[in-house]
Write a structure and sequence with these properties.
It contains 8 helices and 7 strands, in the order αβααββαααββααββ. It is of the alpha+beta class. It has 2 domains: 64 residues, Winged helix-like DNA-binding domain superfamily/Winged helix DNA-binding domain (Arc Repressor Mutant, subunit A); 123 residues, H-NOX domain. The strands form 2 sheets. The protein has a 4-stranded antiparallel sheet, with helices on one face. Strands 1-3-2 form a 3-stranded antiparallel sheet. α5 runs antiparallel to α6. It is globular and about 50 Å long. The protein starts with 12 loop residues before the first helix and ends in a 16-residue tail after the last strand.
Length: 238
């Protein structure tokens, strides 16, 4: 039987395939947030065993971490599912808008003008973004405004989406181009949250942030409350 030897220095085809698959895994988690191996397996069309091999390699490489998935209600038998999410290193591989010079500039601003100066900068920065988003959001039907805002955020690199929550909607941003700056200067997050409220015309609440290790920036948008007329008393015509 003839033995086929690889040429010295030639890259193994499997390495290239593995690299592309892991890039795809990272992109899915970036867009959808923390995911189970089963969900990734279904999306990628790979066996659960194959996906777990990639996930284990990415955890070992420092681009992913995992935690036990929360179970609501009675837990089924067997090991609980694990959610895989990007680490800081994994997020850094995505598109970023700021580097160390931005942090240095804001540190200088804070040292010379104090917290108020940083807050004013954050508000000025987000006002320009708010102005760009306003036309599209205002033109959309009220029920669609959160989705339109998510589309605008995604176009700016935030990989955003909207999902239903127990008492309203949740605007989820799976990537934060300014996360390393916002980790030190939360005024950026505060200004962004306030802008979401103005754009949507309602009070919103930030429930989780990537910079605090939550994996996804989640903003709660309450369901509009429509009061009902009281029912007429029995025997009395309205």
């Amino acid at each position: 039987m003839k033995t086929v030897r690889s040429r010295p220095g030639a890259a193994a085809p499997r390495d290239a395939v593995d690299g592309r698959t892991r890039d795809h895994v990272a992109r899915l988690i970036l867009e959808r947030g923390p995911s189970t191996a089963a969900a990734l397996s279904e999306e990628l069309g790979l066996s659960p065993a194959a996906v777990r091999r990639h996930l284990d390699a990415m955890v070992a490489g420092g681009t992913l971490t995992s935690r036990e998935a929360r179970v609501y209600g009675r837990r089924a038998r067997g090991r609980p599912a694990r959610l895989f999410m990007l680490t800081d290193a994994g997020h850094a591989a995505g598109p970023t808008s700021y580097d160390d010079i931005a942090v240095q500039a804001l540190r200088y601003l804070a040292s010379t003008g104090g917290d108020d100066a940083v807050r004013a900068f954050a508000e000025q920065r987000v006002s320009a973004v708010e102005e760009r988003y306003a036309a599209a959001v205002d033109a959309a039907p009220e029920a669609d405004r959160a989705a339109v805002l998510a589309e605008a955020l995604s176009a700016d690199g935030y990989a955003a989406g909207v999902r239903s929550g127990p008492s309203g909607l949740q605007l989820c941003q799976h990537h934060c181009p300014v996360q390393h700056v916002a980790a030190e200067f939360p005024q950026l997050c505060d200004a962004e949250t306030a802008a979401f409220g103005r754009l949507l015309g309602t009070h919103v609440q930030r429930l989780a942030t990537i910079v605090h290790g939550d994996g996804v920036c989640t903003t709660h948008i309450p369901t509009p409350y429509v009061p009902h007329a009281p029912a007429p008393a029995e025997g009395i015509s309205p």
